[in-house]
Amino acid sequence: MSEEVILSTTNLSKSFSTGGVLQHILKNLNIEIYKGEFLVIMGSSGAGKSTLLYSISGMDKPSLGEVVCCGENITKYSTDKLADFRSRHCGFVFQQVNLVGSMSLMDNVLTLGLLGKTPKAEIIERAKKLFEKVDIPEITQAKFPNQVSGGEGQRAAIVRALINNPDILFADEPTGALNAANTKAVLDIFTEFNQEGQTVVMVTHDIKSARRADRIIYLDDGKVAGECRLGKYVSGDQDRHDRLGAFLTGMGW
Question: I want to staple 40 with a disulfide (CB 3.0 to 4.6 A). Which of 23, 140, 211, 213 is the partner?
């Protein structure tokens, strides 16, 4: 894994007002994410995992502090400029696939891909290769989201997230709504792309998902309570399994 920093935060903080009471969700976080790594963010419910993901990806704005991503300080960007930044640098996969129901899987992907300046023929070719890579045949690509399984829909959502060749793939509980077989399929896809150089940042509650990480950041009450470096994933690595278990136990998981 390269030690080139692709994203960093300085005193990142995020607060919300609920019923007139200010809730501090993220508290002065200073983190670095490296190009080509598979980073997993874990923590108990309400620790700030998804808030951190949205704050560092330009989906939301922090209350205080700075985020530098892909060489750009995005902290003061306008809503429109953030949208442009995300389209150029970020891909997103969520727990729910969020595909447009009135469009085929292929059209869902092409609609996003054609928003950029890449020629249409090049986008179509890239979409075909990505669909092949995630094992969705041409006949299924023409189907609508309600005609495919949850696993196929999520794999199509991954293709959509990767169509513009993002610098970072952000994922928020991407296997949370999937069964065991589809969870493994999605994790295998993330692992394959990561091992080819794709930077992945994923929020998860799932230990099997966390095992795929190069590094895990554990949040507690809006702060980094600890981190665990596991290195690149190798299937069946018992030492990796044991180290992760010991780390999570130490974090009070």
Answer: 213
Sign for the pseudo-dihedral over CA of 93, 95, 98, 99 = positive
Amino acid in position 252: G
How far is the C-alpha of 169 from the C-alpha of 189, rounded, in Å?
A: 12
d(CA 88, CA 103) in angstroms, rounded, equals: 23
Which residues, at least 6 apart from 252, have a Cβ–Cβ distance to it below 8 Å?
A: 44, 220
Residue written as token pair 């002065």: 28
pLDDT value of residue 106: 97
Q: Report the first-to-last Cα separation within the chain, whole angstroms.
A: 27
Contacts 24+ apart (CB under 8 A), 12-19: 12/52, 12/55, 12/56, 12/62, 12/64, 12/65, 12/66, 12/67, 13/62, 13/63, 13/64, 13/65, 14/48, 14/51, 14/52, 14/55, 14/60, 14/62, 14/63, 14/222, 15/63
Q: Where are the domains of the chain?
A: 5-250
CATH 3.40.50.1370 at 5-250, yes or no: no
What is the tens place of the pLDDT at every residue in 80-111? 999 999 999 999 999 999 999 999 999 999 99
